[in-house]
Amino acid sequence: MTRCRVWAVWAVGMSAYLVGVMHRTSFGVAGLDAVERFHATSAALSGFVVLQILVYAFLQVPVGMMLDRFGARRMIVAGALIMAAGQLLLALSTSLPLAVAARVLVGAGDAFTFISVLTVVSAWFPPRRVPLMTQLTGLLGQFGQVLSAIPLAALLHGPGWTPAFVSAAALGVAVAIAVIAVVRDRPAGAPAVAAAESPREVLDGLRRSWLEPGTRLALWTHMGTQFSATVFMLLWGVPYLVAGHGMSTGAASSLLTIFVIAGAAAGPVMGELSGRRPERRVWLVISVIGLNALVWTAVLLTPAPAPYWLLVLLVVVLAFGGAASLVAFDFARTFNPRCRQGTAVGIANMGGFIAALLVALAIGVVLDAIGAGYSAASFHLAWAIQYAVWALTLAGIVLSWRKARRRSAEAAARPPLPAPTAVGHA
What we know:
This protein is an all-alpha fold and about 425 residues long. It contains 18 helices and no strands. The chain is about 80% helix and about 0% strand. Helix 1 (about 5-25) packs antiparallel against helix 6, helix 1 (about 5-25) packs across helix 8 and helix 5 (about 70-90) packs antiparallel against helix 9 (about 160-180). The longest helix has about 35 residues, at about 215-245.
């Protein structure tokens, strides 16, 4: 196995994720065009985003189970083609129900992609390098937002809606062909992973994955580190900065740019620390969650408008939380056998997105209940919901980590099975 082969497999797999991120974010650059094309309200358009993420989140476990059964290569190809079908349907749609169905397809295909690419990473790279390569995959894949923000937007505002989304669909088909040609589930000569053969075995694999404390540790880790950054970037960050702190839209957008840059710097750091000192991964995660809570406390207790440097510090810390969430996949990988890693990673990846959706909805409910508009005081009360999630996840991390260590110690102390004796004839 040559190094060029390894890097080619990774590059094509990562490109599939990058194009998937483009599909995921493509509707964001088409908001005003969608209002005109589908005669939709702003509330309906925001529902597109929520529905797409709901589909993505709740498909993680079924997709993880299919990943263990069918392998990463088939799942990446299926995800790319499903997203391409969604983009093609969106290109040809002129009614709101068809557009909704198209975005459901995009969310479903998106769910197939990331955890499958991570499975390719863990199969092709040495264990010591997997945490760093996981971070690099997540980091570089986010540049798919650039594809939607620049070339796709240019097509949308030039040739128009249909050519833009047909082009996106064609790119999805192209990346599926590249995956078929280059990517393999494992290097040549590597032992095949035994797959579940019956529905009962598949469900038993799900049960065993959940009962493994390391899987629950991964779930709580992903939930506690990721949700705050996702809520901030997805929905409530810009309204909070503009209405709560009196920033202009341009200044608020500059803070989001700082978030992206900080995430690019944090990813390799987290990957290297996790790979070099795996026994300290839990303390790394707890420290990041504690730092998020500490900086948010400083922001919420500071009379608005908060100093610019404090808001910059907030988005930098949130970016580190996003990078730390990928440590969850290391837990899922190292505490589960290869035959169940897809299911375990799917369980972990569900945590942060479900928490983000619940917190985003809860913030909206609190703001409406207060009835004071988008003021700093009402936002501060609404953002305080986060503390309940941090408390829950920290408790889950500590309890799961104790159980995982106890199980590992028991397994290490268990005497090895006796070697089979040969039976022969005198």
